[in-house]
Amino acid sequence: MNKLMLSGCAALAMVSAAPALAQVNGEVDVEGYVDDRCQFAILDHAIIDLGEISGDDGRLDEGAVDAGQATLQGWCNGSASTIWVEAFPLINAAVASPSFANRVDYRATATAGSSAPLDDTTAAGAGAEVPLGLFNGDIVVDISNSASPGDGLMVAGDYLGRIVVTLAPNTSFESPPAAP
Amino acid sequence: MRSACLALASLLSASAAAAGAQAPATGDVGVSANVDGVCRLGPPSRPSVDLGELANRSGIRVGRLAALADAIVTLPGTYCNFGGTQVTLRAEALVQTELSQPPPGFARAVNYSATVRTWAEEPPLITTTASVDGDSPADQDSGGTEPAAKLTDLVLAFFGFSVPSDARLVAGTYQGLVTITLGPAGTGPAQGE
């Protein structure tokens, strides 16, 4: 970028110093850049409605939970982009008595191309950040490995959880230098 | 010229400051589910209570009600997965199944008390009040409300057997019926017998 500035100034100087009838050339370098960027397209929000998640025995129907799936759509335009997932357990606000469970833990996996970051709700915080690179397409969010604490009887009521998928653009090119 | 260069440099550096990665983007997936409210009565430890011979076979009380031991039936693994539930108990006295009208001095009904323990603090308690001829044999009572989801071994107890007027019992087969209903307080059909 410094080169651009110096060459631009030299060209202006040559113009002003040229003889009246001589042909001269003035040059203007044109440069631009594209920031590293990631965005979710139209589908930046989805809902997985699992319905009834207790079995005939009153305990968690793991199959019903593990069937949960949703699709987001997004893109990243830089080779340094990454992706990670943070999942939050399904919680019923009703108080759990002994022998009962009001929480469902699970693993959330977001598959974007060859990247498949995951996060277990039993572990605090987000899962590991993994490389994504140039990407444009579906991000399929899957639930698996569901379980309730102690395999207790499930307390009746509504259960709510959340899965957050993050696309981080990072920096894949050398940024222009700061002003002198 | 110097000022022009500085101006150009300033303009370019301003653009340069905007270069670099943008903020991460996040996509949300809400996950929802539900569990229906349900109550289940565990399998009774025995499907029926056979009291055997009801009358004394000898002694000064021959033909009259014998001393019957209390009877217990457990329903292990009984639960409701929500709060605000109660147990309702309905009992019919033991009535002789064949004869409609006993002769004077005889009875064809055996009354008893029944209760269900281990649910709410206040258990249902009933005592049947059938007459000597077996009329009005049924009684019903509801226990207190259990405020939270609960899993327990429900205990149904029979005790205090008696015969109206302590009359002699008519020979034959005697049958009664106890129905336990577990469900939301104040509602719900019978769910187990």
Provide key terms for this protein.
heterodimer, A: 180 residues, mainly beta, Immunoglobulin-like, eight-stranded antiparallel β-sheet, 11 strands, rod-shaped, disordered N terminus, B: 193 residues, Jelly Rolls, 1 helix, disordered C terminus
Tell me about this structure.
The complex is a heterodimer of chains A (180) and B (193). Chain A is mostly beta strands and 180 residues long. Chain A has 2 domains: 1-32, no CATH class; 38-168, Immunoglobulin-like, CATH 2.60.40. Chain A is built from 2 helices and 11 strands, in the order H-E-E-H-E-E-E-E-E-E-E-E-E. Chain A has helices at residues 2-17, 62-66; strands spanning 38-40, 45-52, 69-76, 82-91, 100-101, 103-111, 118-120, 130-131, 135-147, 153-154, 157-168. In chain A, the strands form 2 sheets. In chain A, strands 1, 3, 4, 6, 7, 8, 9 and 11 form an 8-stranded antiparallel sheet that branches. In chain A, strands 5-10 form a two-stranded parallel ribbon. Chain A is rod-shaped. Residues 1-16 of chain A have low confidence and may be disordered. Chain B has 193 residues and is mainly beta. Chain B has a single domain, classed as Jelly Rolls (Sandwich), CATH 2.60.120. In chain B, 8% of the residues lie in helices and 41% in strands. Chain B has 1 helix and 11 strands. In chain B, the strands form 2 sheets. In chain B, strands 2, 3, 4, 6, 7, 8, 9 and 11 form an 8-stranded antiparallel sheet that branches. In chain B, strands 5-10 form a two-stranded parallel ribbon. The longest helix of chain B has 16 residues, at 2-17. The radius of gyration of chain B is 35 Å and the shape is rod-shaped. The N and C termini of chain B lie far apart (103 Å). Residues 1-18 and 188-193 of chain B have low confidence and may be disordered. At the A-B interface, helix 1, strand 1, strand 2, strand 3 and strand 9 of A face helix 1 and strand 1 of B. Strand 11 (157-168) of chain A pairs antiparallel with strand 1 (25-35) of chain B.
